[in-house]
Design a protein that fits this description.
Helix content: under 10%
Oligomer: single chain
Order of helices and strands: EEEEEEEEEEE
Largest sheet: 7 strands, mixed
Shape: globular
Distance between the termini: 40 Å
Number of helices: 0
Structural class: mainly beta
Radius of gyration: 13 Å
Number of strands: 11
Strand content: over 45%
């Protein structure tokens, strides 16, 4: 029922910034908790950031804390991931996900819908 489309990925240099967007359709966006995950080639998908239904609560993986910011605009049915001070180890396919829940979710099994991903490459 819910369709998620990520955008904003690309090739950047270390130290640069990038903003990812995830547009949702087919559901009630304001009732979902949202999250971002990433997966590098040959590695497991890992948690990046989460936000609750109002945007009042956020949570970040230690690897991105202080550099990345998750936010949402419920009027636009969109969640964002602002990535600052990018490092080569941030290179991955980034996925957004929606959970049928109000409180923020950390575990991938708690998410009901997933986007197709957008590629981020950070060169040294």
């Amino acid at each position: 029922q819910v369709h998620l489309v990520e955008s904003g990925g690309g090739l950047v240099q270390a130290g640069d910034s990038l903003r990812l967007s995830c547009a949702a359709s087919g559901g009630t966006f304001s009732s979902y908790a949202m999250g971002w995950f990433r997966q590098a080639p040959g590695k497991e998908r890992e948690f990046v950031a989460a936000i609750n239904w109002t945007g009042g609560s956020t949570y970040y993986a230690d690897s991105v804390k202080g550099r990345f910011t998750i936010s949402r605009d419920n009027a636009k049915n969109t969640v964002y991931l602002r990535m600052n001070s990018l490092k080569p180890e941030d290179t991955a396919v980034y996925y957004c996900a929606a959970a049928v829940a109000s409180g923020l979710q950390i575990g991938p099994d708690n998410y009901n819908y997933w986007g197709q991903g957008t590629q981020v490459v950070v060169s040294s």
